[in-house]
Structure prediction request, 222 residues.
Amino acid sequence: MADLPHRRWFEFFLQYLPNKPTWIGELFCGPAAMAHEAARRGYRAIALDREKSFLVRGNSLCADARALPLADSVLTGAIATNSSLNYLNDTRDLALHLCEVARVLEARGVYVFDTCPHERALALDGYTHNALESTVKISHTYDSRQKKLMSRVALKNNQITEVHPQRIFSDTELRTAAKIAGFRILEREPNYALPTTQIVAPVTTWVLARNGGDSTPRARAK
Prediction:
């Protein structure tokens, strides 16, 4: 995981913020790489995850993505990486989550996240690879009819195996949920606009803006 381009992901996120942020939220934070990057650059950030084991330092909260323990309009921007939204069970949970994010964002606030699209899930089907210096073995199977990608993670040293199911959402399902939550879609790009020549099927990066103004990226205004 150490080779993930966290800084470049964060730079992509920063260009869409409508103003100097009051607070930045990292949702489904895991090790909170984005929150740490925000803090490194002098921003106030809070990390949220439902797994307490991840919440070990800094500003962090244990949180259900469908009921965020934050006040209304408190965040200027929110970010979620590593296809975290695919861990939501279904389109109802997706809509609930996006409605909650819209609630905690200030007007014109942005939500940047990536998802695993159908094409990537198909490419991962049957694929096995090692990670973290071969201490972890990850294998994938995809049921396209059920829209479920199952990732089996085996830790070799202590022989622990976990299965992580992901719901693969279509573009239509994501757009519908965003509309329900009162978001405008500013961008839909592969892989945070980074090069994809070495990637068979990249993640899809979404940039949503809460209704209330324009959040055209400062560095890439069209």
The longest strand covers residues 105-115. The CA atoms of residues 7 and 37 lie 7 Å apart. Residues 215-222 have pLDDT under 50 and may be disordered. The domain at 6-117+168-210 is CATH 3.40.50.150 (Rossmann fold).
